[in-house]
Structures are given as C-alpha cells and as structure tokens.
Amino acid sequence: MPGACALTGANASAREGCSRFAPRHAAYLDLCHDACVLPYTAYLRVYQPLIAFSNREKAYWRAYAASSRRPRRSGAVAAEHSESLRRLVATPPIPVPERESGDAYVRRLDGEVYICPWQTRLRSWLGLRDFRAETPARLSPAFMPEPVAASAEERFEQWRERGEPTRTQILTSTWTVPMSWFAPFDPEERCLVLGGAEQPADAAEAAAEQGATRARHPAGGQGAAPRTLLYVARMPEARRRLERAIAVLREHVGESSALSAAERLEDWLLGVAHPRALLELDYGGLVHLVGDEELRRDQSVAEVAAALSGLETGQEELAAAMYQRVTQRWKEIQALQHAN
Length: 340
Hints:
Elements: H1 10-15, H2 27-37, E1 41-49, H3 55-66, H4 73-88, E2 104-109, E3 112-117, H5 120-134, H6 140-143, H7 146-161, E4 170-174, E5 190-193, H8 201-210, E6 228-234, H9 235-252, H10 257-272, E7 278-282, H11 292-297, H12 300-312, H13 316-335
Antiparallel strand pairs: 1-3, 1-4, 1-7, 2-3, 5-6, 6-7
C-alpha cells in the first residue's frame, strides 16, 4: 500500500485535497493536479536478487519480471494507491486484503533481476496496528469500524503465531525523508528525471528501473515522463556507509535520536536484506511538493555525507552548516502538511 496502510497512506492522501495547500512555491499551482493523485510518501526499498528466493518463488518472480502485463515502475505506486482506495470505499471497508499481493517492483542491473515484493497484506496489517496505537480510541471508529479492525488484528495474530515473517522490504515515510535514510547512499547514485516537457516515457522508465547513477533529463520523443528522484546502492556499499555513519555519530554525538534512527535502520537491513541486494531511496510523491529547480538543488545525500565528514575531521562549522541546510529543507517540506 502506498503508505503503511490505506488508513495512513492512501486515505490520508484522498482526504487532503489541493484545497489544503497554499502555494509557497510558484510551481505548486502547476503541480497541484498531480500532487493530489498520490500520497506524499517516500519509500526505502530492498530489492532481493532471485537467489534469495525459494525455487518456487524464483520461478514465479522470473516469469513476473519478464511479463509485459505487470505494472511498470511509473505506474506501480498509483496501482497500489488505487487498490487501497477500492478497499477503503467498500462496505464494510477492507483494511487488509484477503491474500498477499503477487506484484513487485523490479530492477535490472548488470544482467541480474532484483525483486521487491509489494507485501501489501503484511504492510496493511502493520499499518493498521500503528494506526490503532496512535489514534485515540474514541476517534478510531470514524475511520474504521471496530469489529472490522478487531477481525483484521485477530488474523494478524494468527499469522504471527504461525511464525510467518513480520518485517517488510519497504519502509515508508510521509511528508519527509528521515535523515538516516540518506546515509547509505553516495551522491553519484542519484537518478533525477524531471517532468513537464514532452519526453519518452519508456526512456524514463528504463532510467529508473535500471538504476542509473547520474542525474538525467531525457529529451525528445513523445509522452510525459514521470518526475522521479531516487538513489540506488548495492547492499555492501550501503551497509558500509551506514556503519560509518553510526560510528561517527556514536563517537562525536553520542546517544541521540540521530544515532538511534541509524541503528534501527541498520537492524532492519540486517534482518531483511540479502548480501547481494540493492537498496533504493525513492522520493515518491514528495517530488510533487517542489518544483524542478528545487529538485535539481536537492543534494540531501551529499549534504549528510559532508556533515558526517565534518564531524569525523573536526570541522564542526562545516558539519553544522551541512546539517542545518538539509534539515531546514525538509522542515519546510514537512510544514506543508499543516498548510491551509
């Protein structure tokens, strides 16, 4: 599901129409229509090599990756979002699908296929659990009837009792990208596709699916390319960078929310990622909150890396300046959640 679940992701996006946003950037008026379609959510995805799956799963995902009918990358989040909304408007609403999704995000790199299953059912269960924990009991029934929610939670407990996996290969964050998510990546792993002009959609699709490592703006051809900003790293490099960030924070900052967030991220990667996996940071719907120039200037990965290097080398002013630059950018974006 685009967010953690329909209640916290797709439904939130549907409730918050364009009318809630004051145009703090000139580009907002032009982007308003697209921005209302998808939730303002960023994604951190683990793509597993086929070797990570059982023989049966491997055969399924190999055929799936080769299929011309699977949702393409440019429409996959929208397909998840639409499926969530269909379940939410049902009577009664269906917070969790009866079966796990058979869809996935697909990447190809150096001739190898990588798969990130949607895990819609598991993510919906986890999202519903978080929603009920964070929402006052008197308000929760306004979004989801109590018998429906209780039944879904009972099925989740049965799932857990059977020893089924409860960790997803996709993390989501609404309205912002957590600072810890930038640490596993290198600036050269950045892939930027800007929309607005007439561009070859297939070229943009290939750029994103292949995991191109440099900013790009395809030109020529027909069709509007989707606006995308993402990073893709091989897991060994991603883990090494994250380990370095944790060591630097532990030595120079000590116990802090930044250190705790980086350690939780490391624990998640150790728990779900094959050593040969890929890690992807996708700005997702957040690209619709800023214009093309802001996206071009967004170098959050480079700024976090510079802040860490400043701490490591005793350049405290550099570290503070880089940290302030990246946090201010995301505070301004996150503040749009409450714009009126």
